[in-house]
Design a protein that fits this description.
Layout lengths: L4 E10 L3 E4 H7 L4 H8 L3 E4 L7 H16 L8 E5 L10 H9 L5 E5 L5 H14 L6 E8 L9 H4 L4 E11 L4 E9 L7 E2 L11 H5 L6 E2 L1 H22 L9 E4 L4 H11 L10 H4 L6 H9 L8 E8 L3 E8 L5
Parallel strand pairs: 4-5, 4-6, 11-12
Antiparallel strand pairs: 1-7, 2-3, 6-7, 8-13, 9-10, 12-13
Helix pairs in contact: 3-4, 8-9
Bound molecules: oxa(dethia)-CoA.
Length: 331
């Protein structure tokens, strides 16, 4: 029997309707469209509006669309891995909430927290269940309602983030397509530079933590930028080297969308031309766990069976990594 690879067999995405432009940002904080565009590449981002709506509500749209595309029923899903930094609740897991909302009554699931690297950590862990033969259909969801943890008075963070959600279905493939390799890394000393200080067991919510805005993203931008540029580029180059891939062999780079300058640096380190790089940061900003599946969704029609794809991410805490996969279908 041939080796079983975990292949992505369908992708989908969802972004909320409300568009927050850089012009609107100018009304909230001391910034300018020119500054945001030139420093980050972001022109607008989506915001999930509506009382009582959370990350799972975006996922419902994305996943129902995926199931329809693939022509399968939610009851066929074995496992849901929900990669998110903004779960609906501390508990129960958003994977559980989603399973209930979409009627995936045969699935078990869990949330995976690795900040902006979550989706690649999720793909990689989901792949283990496919490769081992344990499961046939693993749904990996990546999404965040970042607007729920942003301080819209902090111009250094609020301009970057947006809301959105994407998903991918993993299924067994015996023809050699699917995930070939992954390199996943983390360094907890990075927690000082990008994270959320309160709301966990160390500093539960109090009036004081709320008054001090400790339930919002804290980021020391320039430090994170330096780590992100180096680590994301290095890990993408490393996975190419160890799989004997040259820039010509790579059909697409799918980078986490945190800052256009970080994306450009990664592509340049890999020697990959800009027309092979998926970039939608100008429209969605940084949707954290959503960036990579949203790119796959938007570029789905352009990817061809057998394309070599490199995915790379860097995130808070710190986490980073890269995946090399062979695209498994023509859409
Ligand atoms: O997705 C997870 C990983 N996250 C990342 O990868 C993000 C990495 N970091 C970044 O993308 C960038 O550091 C930022 C976009 C957050 C900031 O860009 P920067 O080029 O590093 O700017 P900076 O923080 O060094 O600030 C430069 C100047 C400062 O003014 P002075 O001190 O030079 O007078 C800031 O106060 O720009 C000022 N500034 C702003 N000005 C207008 C900072 N934010 C803004 C703003 N509008 N929104």
């Amino acid at each position: 029997m041939n080796k079983i690879h975990a292949a992505i067999t369908a992708v989908n995405g969802y972004v909320p309707d409300y568009i927050m432009t850089n012009k609107e940002m100018e009304t909230l904080v001391d910034t300018s469209d020119e500054w945001i565009t030139s420093r980050t590449g972001i022109r607008e981002r989506r915001i999930l509006k509506g009382e009582g709506l959370g990350t799972s509500d975006m996922a419902v749209h994305a996943v129902n669309g995926l199931l329809k595309k693939r022509g399968i029923d939610a009851m066929e899903i074995d496992l849901i891995i929900f990669c998110t930094t903004t779960p609906d609740f501390t508990f129960p897991a958003t994977a559980n909430v989603l399973a209930d909302k979409i009627g995936a009554r045969n699935a078990w699931g869990y949330d995976l927290q690795a900040a902006c690297s979550g989706f690649i950590f999720g793909l990689s862990t989901g792949a283990q269940f496919i490769e081992s033969g344990k499961h046939k259909k693993v749904l990996v969801v990546g999404g965040d309602k970042m607007s729920s943890i942003i301080n819209y008075k902090d111009r250094t963070t609020c301009i970057i983030f947006g809301d959105g959600c994407g998903c991918a279905l993993l299924e067994p493939n015996e023809e050699g397509f699917g995930i070939q390799d992954s390199i996943l890394r983390s360094d907890g000393s990075g927690k000082e530079f990008l994270g959320m200080k309160a709301g966990g067991s160390v500093l539960p919510a109090t009036h004081e933590t709320i008054d001090a805005n400790l339930h919002a993203v804290h980021q020391e931008g320039p430090t994170v930028f330096k780590f992100a540029v180096t680590n994301m580029a290095d890990v993408a180059a490393e996975i190419m080297e160890r799989n004997n891939l040259t820039a010509n062999d790579v059909a697409w780079l799918v980078p986490h969308q945190a800052n256009k300058r970080i994306i450009d640096a990664t592509a340049s380190r890999m020697g990959v031309d800009s027309d092979k790089v998926m970039i939608n940061i100008e429209r969605y900003g940084n949707t954290t766990n959503g960036t990579i599946p949203l790119c796959l969704w938007e570029w789905e029609s352009k990817m061809k069976k057998g394309d070599n794809i490199i995915i790379a991410a860097f995130g808070g805490g710190f986490t980073w990594g890269s995946i090399y996969l062979k695209w498994a279908y023509n859409s």
